Structure formats: structure tokens, C-alpha cells
Amino acid sequence: LPSASSTAAMASRALNLFTICRRQFGTTGSLASKVAVLGASGGIGQPLSLLLKQSPLVSQLSLYDIQGVKGVAADLSHISTKAEVSGFDGPASLSDCLKGSRVVVIPAGVPRKPGMTRDDLFNTNAGIVADLITAVAKTCPKAMICIVTNPVNSTVPIAAEILKKHNAYDPRRLFGVTTLDIVRSNAFVAEAKGLDVSKVSVPVIGGHSGVTIIPVISQAVPSVSFKAQDRETLTTRIQNAGTEVVNAKAGAGSATLSMAFAAEKFVDSVLQAIDGKRGVIECAFVESTVTEAPYFSTPLLLGRDGVEENLGLGNLIEFEAKLLQAAMPELQQNIAKGVKFVKERY
Fold first, then answer.
1. What does UniProt list as catalytic (predicted)?
2. Which of 13, 208, 231, 277 is labelled catalytic?
3. Which listed CATH number (3.30.1370.10, 2.60.120.380, 1.10.10.10, 3.40.50.720) goes with 34-178?
4. What is the tens place of the pLDDT at every residue in 242-270?
5. How far are the Cα atoms of 119, 193, 217, 242, 320 from residue 230, in angstroms, in the given order?
6. pTM score over 0.85
């Protein structure tokens, strides 16, 4: 068990992160922000685009997919919010979609079905991400890139390697969106403890699939305690929450609505940081030296140019340290698979 001093230190760090995350220091005024959504007519792309259309921080919403997106754009354009919506169908229009984008969000790809792991998606989604990132590198290399497409543990390294080939890689500007793991952790902890979920914050570190998802419940705000068995059960549920939805939908899809909510939350934080808000913190899967894994998710302080500071692991209790140790082999393999894919095919 952690000592009283270490418990106090963990609580202090957690409270500090939570306070910074919600502190508003004033901004320099809203900047015009064009956001591109690649894969906008899909199960995640449509609700994500709807949520982004409602954001006061988005001035232009540029939607791309291989087909069907013009109808989505026309539908969204009738909503009485300020973002101007444009739709772009097919690869020939991709560069026009991307021109001038400050943020590019990529939910494109095939969804998971019952019995599939995120890694099973690799063969299809790896090529989709590589092709889209190639267009980003050529058209808007300074954009903040938010990768939603699974398996994130592999697609982020793929994106990085493609960007490097075009001399367009800035590790501060490439993010794997793991926010759904945080959203789920907040919801499940709040439910278990009868708390107001809007006031709950649970950092989640590691990766974005199975055992690589490491909820750091010891750093939750407000501080919560669980019996060992309950903590283990809750952790397992968070790690397998995606499968919970896939099975509940019985072949009809994966987590689309909650993923769209989480992705919009992350993009909103990125836009706030670009716009000059200070103290914006989100967890995301980025290039990292925090562990031996070259990419790793931890709380990040965001700024105008992306990652301003990696806030690291904080103090982990023994249970969480064991989760970290158990996650590393699979995480390293996922990353290496993405790197190898680009080296062999591009």
C-alpha cells in the first residue's frame, strides 16, 4: 500500500492537473480555425462533424470521404451555427479539402466487428491512414493532426513515418486521440461512486487498446478509493469497454457516438490552445521519452504549437505500475508494426 506521504503527493498532482485543466487565463481573441474531418460520412465522422459544427471555435468545417459526404455537408450546413461547411467527395478533391486547415481529424477506416481486435483492423486501416497523411504532408503540413482511426497504437507511428518521408514531421503536432478512454473512466468512476461526472477527472496513460490502456485511478479527482478487487474489475471494464459496445451492437458497428463525443472534446481542447488559452491539458498518444516505448499516452500541456509539455506518469501505485509493465510488450509490438508497414511499403 502507498504511504501517507506518497498518497498525499498523488492527490496533490491530480488536483493540480485538474485545476490547471479548468483554469481560464484569458485568450487573445478567437482566431479563424478551419477544421478538416477525413472520413466524415462514416459512423464516427457524421456525429463528430455535427458536434464540430456547433463549436464557436470552428469557422470552416471541411468534410472529406470517398463518397456520400456532400449530402452530409448539405445537411449540416442548414444548422444555425457560424461554421461554414463544405463537402469533398473522392481522392481528387482531398487536397482542396485540406487547404488552409489548422486541425485535421482522421476517423476514416473500417469499424471493429464482434470477434475482431483493433489489431485485426490493421491491414485495411493502415493504408487508409498512410494515404490520407501523405495528402496532409503535401497540403497542410503545419496542421494539428488528430488520429482517431484504429489501431491508434499503430496508426500514429504510421503517420509519423509518412510525415518524416515528406520532411513534415513535428512531434508536437501529431496526436493519437485516446480521449474515449478518459471519458469512459470518468463515467465509470462517477457511476461507481455516485459522483457528478462533470467534476470527475481520471488520467489514462499507455496506449489505446486492451491491456495497453492504463487508467490511473489513484490520481483521480476527486480522490476515490476502491477495494483491490473492485479496482481490478473497474480497470478491466475500462480496458474492454470497446468490446462491450461492439458486442452490444451485435455486428452493427463499434463505439461511434461516444468516440465522436470524445474526439470533439479533444479537438476543442486543441482549438482552445491554438486560440491562446493557457493551462489546457489532455491525454494523448504522442512521441514520448517517458517510457521505453517511443510513443505513449500521458497528460499533455497543450499550447499554440501543439504539445508544450509532457506531464509524465506521476506517482503510480503498485497495481498501476504492474499494469504499465504488462502493457509494454504489446504496445512495443503495435508501434513496431506501424513503423515496419511504412518502411516496407512506402
1. 208
2. 208
3. 3.40.50.720
4. 999 999 998 888 999 999 999 999 999 99
5. 28, 12, 12, 20, 14
6. yes
